Every structure is written in structure tokens, then in C-alpha cells.
């Protein structure tokens, strides 16, 4: 028993060492970004380069504000990412519920068709989507990014699998006997059960839309409609590279993303804990 305890302690210590090492490796790029954002470019170009934070964080960020509408671009990204995330959660959860629990003609074919679309590179649909946006007159408007992003094949697949494995059929049959409509079953029974799936999909989709560069670059040409990714790209000069300024803008643009991740991650863990207690 004693040797078994030692083995267990050593195993836990080894796991902790691996987790700490992985955390350090994962966090180092963010630390290095912060170091560059707080130093002048001359300090970065030294050999060896600066490895400790400097005193130029405010100055570098002031240079960012002088070149781009940083807060306006942040607001545009926040609006687009929030609207797309909310829309995807609602639409994909509805579709996932339908594919998982409802019986209708062509269900399997439609679901397979959705899965096939996941194998098509999004760049192939760039020209047709751009043509549709121009015909609708949506160029330089945020809805040109929001509306095409409301349908997510992975989100439908994810929700379908989660609903199918988490919501008992007996619970839905009992609700039908009580006279509940399909939407009421979805809203009052399915949604509370799949909160972890909501949190996970929200994290994935929000980060994807926030970091998206190609499609917003194509349809948002006016500087007043730029997202933060496009605005930061304009900081790059063809002749002189002020890395301190560029990484300062990148650092402050990453902070809201980290906060959103931490908030949704906390809700995700709480939802899992509540589900375990209820079960």
C-alpha cells in the first residue's frame, strides 16, 4: 500500500511537471509579444534581443492610435463576432435538434450534404459570395460579414451529436404528451441540457470570426468598417517595420479575446459540474 502511494505521488508529480511545461510553452508566445510591445524596435533588434518588458508600452500604443482607428475597429470586430456567435448558437442548435430528434424525409441526405460542405475550402466560395454581396449592395457594411457567417456546418454537426447523446427520447415524448410544441421542447428542455455545447461552440466561433482576415478584407474596404485584424495589418509599412508598435496593437487586440475565452470557459466548467450533480 505504501509503495502504491509513492507510485501515485510520483505519477501526479510527473503529470504536474508535464502540465506546467506545456503551459509555459503555450504562454511564451504571449509573453514574447508583450515584451516586444513594451520595447523600442532598437531593443528588439539587439543580439541577444530583449527578454524583459520595457517602458515603451504606452508610447507604442499611442503610435498605434495615431495611425489607425483602433477602438473603432475593435468595436466593429466585437459587433460582428457577437452577432455571428449568437446567430450560430441559435440556428445550429435548432438544426442540431431537428437532425437529432425529429424524423422527416431526406434527413440523412441533408446531414451528409452538410458534412460534405465541411470538406470544401472556404476560399472556393469567395467569388460567388462576393457577387451576391455586391448585388445586395452590402459592400462596406458589417452585415456583409455577419450574414454569411450565421450558418456553420461544424456547429450543426456539433450540436446534432451533443443533442443526440445528451437528451433522452423519453423526456421529449413526455413533453409531447403534455402538449408542448417542438419549439417549446427545444427552448425549455433541450437548451438547458446542452449548455456545455453552447459554451464550447461560442468559444470556437467567436475566436474564428474575431481572427478572420480574408473575407472582411474583401468586403469591408472603407476604413470606418475595418475589423481589428485589417486595421492591424495597415500598421505594417513596406519600408520601415516598427515591431514595437505592431505588437502593441496586436497585444491589446488579443486582450478582449482572452477575456471572452476565460468567461465562456468558466461557464463551460460550471455547466459540466451542474450536469454531474443533477445526474
UniProtKB/TrEMBL annotation:
Localization of this protein: Cell membrane
CDD domains in the record: TM_PBP2 (cd06261)
Keyword Transport appears in the UniProt entry: yes
Main location: membrane
TM segment ranges: 12-32, 70-97, 109-133, 145-163, 184-208, 243-264
Family: Belongs to the binding-protein-dependent transport system permease family.
InterPro entries reported for this sequence: MetI-like, MetI-like_sf
Keywords: Cell membrane, Membrane, Transmembrane, Transmembrane helix, Transport
Membrane topology field: Multi-pass membrane protein
Entry protein name: Cellobiose transport system permease protein
Stretches assigned to the ABC transmembrane type-1 domain: 74-264
Pfam families noted in UniProt: BPD_transp_1 (PF00528)
Amino acid at each position: 500500500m505504501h509503495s502504491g502511494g509513492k507510485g501515485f505521488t510520483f505519477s501526479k508529480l510527473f503529470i504536474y511537471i508535464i502540465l506546467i511545461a506545456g503551459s509555459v510553452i503555450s504562454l511564451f508566445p504571449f509573453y514574447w509579444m508583450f515584451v516586444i510591445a513594451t520595447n523600442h524596435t532598437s531593443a528588439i533588434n539587439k543580439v541577444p534581443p530583449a527578454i524583459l518588458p520595457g517602458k515603451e508600452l504606452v508610447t507604442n500604443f499611442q503610435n498605434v492610435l495615431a495611425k489607425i482607428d483602433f477602438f473603432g475597429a475593435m468595436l466593429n470586430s466585437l459587433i460582428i463576432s457577437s452577432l455571428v456567435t449568437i446567430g450560430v448558437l441559435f440556428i445550429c442548435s435548432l438544426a442540431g435538434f431537428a437532425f437529432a430528434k425529429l424524423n422527416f424525409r431526406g434527413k440523412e441526405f441533408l446531414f451528409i450534404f452538410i458534412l460534405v460542405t465541411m470538406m470544401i475550402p472556404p476560399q472556393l466560395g469567395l467569388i460567388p459570395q462576393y457577387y451576391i454581396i455586391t448585388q445586395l449592395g452590402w459592400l462596406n457594411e458589417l452585415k456583409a460579414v455577419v450574414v454569411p457567417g450565421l450558418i456553420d456546418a461544424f456547429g450543426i454537426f456539433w450540436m446534432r451529436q451533443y443533442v443526440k447523446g445528451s437528451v433522452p427520447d423519453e423526456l421529449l415524448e413526455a413533453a409531447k404528451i403534455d402538449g408542448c410544441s417542438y419549439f417549446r421542447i427545444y427552448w425549455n428542455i433541450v437548451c438547458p441540457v446542452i449548455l456545455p455545447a453552447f459554451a464550447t461552440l461560442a468559444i470556437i466561433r467567436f475566436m474564428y470570426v474575431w481572427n478572420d482576415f480574408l473575407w472582411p478584407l474583401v468586403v469591408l474596404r472603407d476604413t470606418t468598417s475595418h475589423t481589428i485584424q485589417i486595421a492591424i495589418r495597415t500598421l505594417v509599412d513596406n519600408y520601415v517595420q516598427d515591431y514595437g508598435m505592431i505588437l502593441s496593437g496586436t497585444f491589446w487586440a488579443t486582450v478582449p479575446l482572452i477575456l471572452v475565452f476565460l468567461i465562456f470557459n468558466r461557464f463551460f466548467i460550471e455547466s459540466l459540474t451542474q450536469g454531474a450533480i443533477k445526474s
